[in-house]
Amino acid sequence: MGLVTISDIRAATESIGNAAVRTPLLRFDDGLWLKPESLQPVGAFKIRGAYNALARLPEDVRARGVVAYSSGNHAQAVAYAAKLFGVPAVIVVPDTTPRVKVVATRSHGAEVIQVPMASRETRAAELVVERGATLIPPFDHPDVIAGQGTIGLEVVADLPDVATVLVPVSGGGLISGVATAVKALSPSTRVVGVEPELAGDAAESLRAGTLIRWPAEDRARTVADGLRAEPSELTFEHMRAYVDDIVTVSEEEIGAAVGRLARQARLVVEPSGAVTVAAYLARPSERTVAVLSGGNVDPEVFARYLSA
Amino acid sequence: MGLVTISDIRAATESIGNAAVRTPLLRFDDGLWLKPESLQPVGAFKIRGAYNALARLPEDVRARGVVAYSSGNHAQAVAYAAKLFGVPAVIVVPDTTPRVKVVATRSHGAEVIQVPMASRETRAAELVVERGATLIPPFDHPDVIAGQGTIGLEVVADLPDVATVLVPVSGGGLISGVATAVKALSPSTRVVGVEPELAGDAAESLRAGTLIRWPAEDRARTVADGLRAEPSELTFEHMRAYVDDIVTVSEEEIGAAVGRLARQARLVVEPSGAVTVAAYLARPSERTVAVLSGGNVDPEVFARYLSA
């Protein structure tokens, strides 16, 4: 299976241009810097991969539109990227998706279809056939992985002696791209994934050296709704090649990290995006960068953690 | 009275270097970009002016330490800058300062003295005499103004065709620096100050063409605790020279802007920092940049506005 290369990621930086924010590194404490992808136009890193995937489609293909299924942030990213390119987008989301994410996706002009969690991939495939549109997968695609990898390029450019990069893990597209970039530019930097204990399938898989599947209903227990997917063969191969370790954090640690980020870094970060800071706070280390993957959280959930 | 020049501001960019974050412009909607100074290490733009002022002191003078009086964010900035230079700092704050700001200031290693609002300048002056330290004023100093002006340089560099820049106004250091930079680089760009209606002394003064003083107890009514100071002769001269208008916003508009910024931009912004977005939302305009001056807000106050 062909892995994404540093050249693919450099090309993605060119393709993405100003469609994504060049997020700064923000100092959090003596050991930790934050990479706040929550500040992207869609509130998540997903715009990088989605935009890169659309940019690489032939123009006539792109013009027929795009389809995506997603737990939320990828949906918004594809909708936003399609708007920038002026092409139609239809988004299939599970009916458990936070309302704030559905509203935001529609606000970008996309058609949104809500279905039960288990049927979203099937429904998306049907839409591809019905409409002649192209499926933009949330993580299982080299162009998506290359787009997310641009985060790794920026981290090493801004903090060349970074010792550890902490990255949330769900389907694995983000960590695949980031690890590919970081290991190419700074081989001695550790790349460590972070999962909720309640959705720790990738951590278990990496230790076992083979993909271990957890039931979707188990993965759905965590408050980190963006981290309920599971790796694909493609992303798992990247993880085996480039990721040093995957650690897990408790629900309590995730909530406390959301609160600390609000109070100390003045950032609204969703639980999925705060797992990296939760891991750092449990075991602080030197010259560490925590990727904050997104900030789309229902205000009621956020308010609950604000003083946690 | 000599005004700060664009050369002073360019020099400040060099002096400040990496002590302040090069904040990105974040797209908020079709017409508005945000300049999130809430992401600075001290949670406010004040680090720029404070650091520049310390950088320009002769080394032997700086070594004897610095003194500041402030409603909060300037205090943290001077404390933080002093820590970076390895010199002592003593900070005089009014006893109405939000607890979160006092704790943060102490966390930077500064000595904090709380006094009644009216006596803070006097007490600071006494400390200068007692300790041989240098007073770093919150706004009434060319080096402070030049430091804040680096924000204006960055805004024009990132959005060269910016039509309007909205800037919070309190003592006027921020808008003096920003307006000086913006008008030098892009004379046709409008620079508009924003104040709370309840502390609208600068707006009234600019219309009158002369400084009109409001009683401190009147200015203290607004929730925007960082906007309760009044301009000095020096900052008012900059405003008369470079500021096109100063508008005011209600307390309700300020609270709603804090909530919108949390939900839509994923930023924790203090009421004082959100007045510019409040002004934009009341009267949207094209190619507008809102400077968000800071993000140091007590969690209880922030939670109240989260769904506003």
Poorly predicted ranges of chain A (pLDDT <50, ≥5 residues)? none
State the helicity of chain A in percent bands.
40-55%
Assembly type: homodimer
Large-scale geometry of chain A: globular
Count of discrete alpha- or pi-helical segments spanning 4 or more residues of chain A? 14
Write down the Rg of chain A: 18 Å
> Largest interface, with Cβ-Cβ < 8 Å?
A-B, 27 and 28 residues
Structural class of chain A: alpha/beta
| CATH topology annotation of the largest domain in chain A | Rossmann fold
- Tell me how many strands of chain A there are: 10
Description:
The first copy, chain A, is α/β, with parallel strands linked by helices and 308 residues long. Chain A has two domains: 6-44 and 141-305, Rossmann fold, CATH 3.40.50; 48-135, 3-Layer(aba) Sandwich (Rossmann fold), CATH 3.40.50.1100. Chain A is built from 14 helices and ten strands. Chain A has helices spanning 6-16, 46-55, 59-63, 73-85, 99-107, 120-131, 142-158, 173-185, 201-208, 216-219, 233-242, 251-265, 271-282, 299-305, and strands spanning 26-27, 32-36, 66-69, 89-94, 111-115, 134-135, 164-168, 190-196, 245-249, 288-292. The first copy, chain A, has a six-stranded mixed beta sheet with strand order 1-2-10-7-8-9, with helices on both faces. Chain A has a four-stranded parallel beta sheet with strand order 5-4-3-6, sandwiched between helices. In chain A, helix 1 (6-16) packs across helix 2. The model of chain A has no long low-confidence stretch (mean pLDDT 95). Chains A and B meet through strand 1, helix 12 and helix 14 of A and strand 1, helix 12 and helix 14 of B.
